[in-house]
Amino acid sequence: MLKEIVIAFQSYFKAHQFIRKHRLWKWIIIPGIIYAILFIVSMYFFGKSATYLIELLIVHTGLRSWVDKMQSSWLGFFFALGGIMLWLILMLLYFSWFKYIWLIVGSPVFGYLSEKTESIIEGKEFPFSLKQLMKDIARGIRLALRNALWQTVYTISILILSFIPLVGWVTPLLALFVECYYYGFSMLDYSSERHRLSPSQSIEFISKHKGLAIGNGMMFYFMHGLIVIGWVLAPAYAVIAATISLYHQKEEFVN
Predict the structure, then answer these.
(1) Which of 17, 34, 74, 215 is deepest in the core (most CB within 10 A)?
(2) What is the mean pLDDT of the chain?
(3) Other residues' Cβ atoms within 10 Å of the Cβ of residue 41
(4) CA distances (Å), origin 232, targets 16, 33, 51, 155, 235
(5) Listed residue (47, 156, 148) closest to 102, CA to CA
(6) H helices within the chain, ranges in order?
(7) What is the pTM of this model?
(8) SS3 77
């Protein structure tokens, strides 16, 4: 798995060189700007909502008044740290919902970028079919909803674990790995879809290459550390990098 994660990381740098060489910026910048604007607005309201929910929880359960009565600096520290862990997990859950909405809306562009990437690598054009495109979009929506459901189940389970002392400290990391896997899964599925793997076959195939999915998702999140520029570039870079990383696994599609 570690080797595949490294391959996924390297694929982002190859994607950058690929985009520059073949001048794909118009397919990167415009969707990226829309994504960045939606990301900024959503994260603002998600942050407000997460803070409100945590405040509501600690006030109505009486946790805050109990901690104040104990007058223990250590207890106060652990209580504050637990609140931060809970806030981070809630933000990851909110962002995952935002991500799936974006994947559904942007599926035609992402599908095109994945196909364009492979057609350039192979030096051939894939025949266009409007009927097939609509089928592919419908399939993408179904898989996005499926992944959203499973990721929500896992994240809520992790959210419950976050209330356990000590164990709860690692839950944001667990939630991040789940988030990375399912985002990378969505990026890799465009190649599976193009090679006519059924949804069940795609799930089986990608589960054998979890490292590629996790690595792709991790780089997607790392790019968000580049304020504004990373937000604009991250979505398109993710799908092109996923296509490049899977190209060398192509023989498995036909076996």
Answers:
(1) 215
(2) 80
(3) 11
(4) 13, 5, 27, 26, 7
(5) 148
(6) 2-22, 25-60, 63-70, 73-122, 130-161, 171-194, 199-207, 210-223, 229-247
(7) 0.78
(8) helix
